[in-house]
Amino acid sequence: MERLINILIIDEKDSDQMALKEILGGGGNILLFCNSIEDAHEILKRREVGIILIDVDSPNFSSMEDFKELLQVHASNTHYSIIITENTRTGSKLLKGFNSGAVDFITKPFNPLLIQAKLDVYKSLYYKDQRIAQLLGNILPENVLDDLNQFGKFSPKRVDKGIVLFTDFVDFSMKSKSIKPIKLVKRLEYYFTAFDEIVERYKLEKIKTIGDAYMAIAGVNEDNAEPILRACMAALEMRNFIRNEKELAKAMKKDFWEIRIGVHAGPLVAGIIGSKRYSFDVWGDTVNIAARAQQFSGIDQITITQAIYDECHMYFDTKDLGNVPIKKRGGTMETFELESLKSEYSLYANGKVPSVDLRILCQIATVDFEHMRSDILNKLKSMLPEEVIYHDLGHTLNVEKAAIRLGKLEGLNEDEMLLLRTAALFHDTGFIFTYQHNELHAVRLMEQMLPKYGFNEDQIQQIREMILATSLDIEPIGLLQEILCDADHDYLGRADYYVVASKLRDEMIAFDMELSEEEWIQMQIKFLGETHQFYTITALNIRQKGKMNRLGELKTALLELQNQQV
User: Which class for 277: exposed (0-12), middle (13-18), buried (19 or more C-beta within 10 A)?
Assistant: First the structure.
């Protein structure tokens, strides 16, 4: 996997920029140049930057206070700052720079080997920071991490109405005896990974897994609206996922798993326990009652308590299950089965997927992206002609992957990333219908399909323009179109260029566009040298050099071929 990093260079001197571009170009470095701290603010509003190089001798450098403010304002988007200076004799500028947040310095005239060595150290630290942040993010909630970073601790908190969701697989102990340990763990991982995605989609917080049990909460750490409704929608999607897996297993005459789910709302105390291995957890009767509701559930059913029913019955079809005893504490509780969404609050009127209005109410994504993605990938898998071996399902997935990588480095927000990924998934679907002018057919299919997944007219129009921009005779306009075009041709600068290009040639031959070896090489040279261009700063940094290397190699190959023919 490629390791990429944004490096911001604040220096207005063209000679310095050229020198640093020569020294730092390549190696996954995405170089961003600006002339002043004011310009740097605009870049850091969108992008995460791993390393900042700033020339403190520049006439455009205002003051160390402004530099310090830059780092403070964009603390979440910046990591390591290095001063560039000609004068290190007095040390006053260096001291002020370090006090402002810099971690190191480089001097002019530049020493390429020293600069590369220093930046390699900070790049390594940056990648480690990213990995640590990713691991901590998987363990602790975002607000807990924020408190730990800012105050060094997280104080326990009490909430009056937290929601607890419990799941448990039916007869797991018996099933585990007949399955090999590795296979058992892989199967649990498969189900729990799906649950993780559902929990994230509905803005819940996973607490832990205990054997085959899965526990999540809502209304404790996040401030999204309607936590009870979100928890109920998540529970429904979990149950429906298990039911679908069960039906598929039955059809294939394989073993299947079944589930019980319980949901309850009430007072909770949340906090961190442990001094060496941190663990975020919640405590209170609410946890025990949610567990009891889960235990009382029927197979592949969701049991909710009165506290949940009171706020969700307007939107969901339910069935009264009567009173059940509460173990240990004593007494009883009223329980209900959560069956499905009411048709008027379901996107497809099938009771499974929340409508746009309900999504807006709950402050979650207004489109059903996951189902859309699954449906369009299945359509590509089943309907693309066998001869389409370059513009195939694998190509679409590679373009989506490249678009995500470019989008993150270019600083896209969540809504922009949604549009970009959707356009990437649809951009080559026109090959289902025709090999020529496929973009128009892709647009028609997209316009037919997306409304039923909750996309609005404005989103569809933006996706339409992005797909059309991938046509070679249209110039992309705006960052989203530029990213999609660069993702579509990402392979031009990769090491696997010749493998991918050979698939394109075989596909062209299958559609009666056979070329001789010389014509094929000439076509590639013309495309790479004259027709194609990368647009985004990121693609120019990480792919342009590789593309030019391929161009040089092709020109050499053409010359050798022509010499053989003489």
Answer: exposed
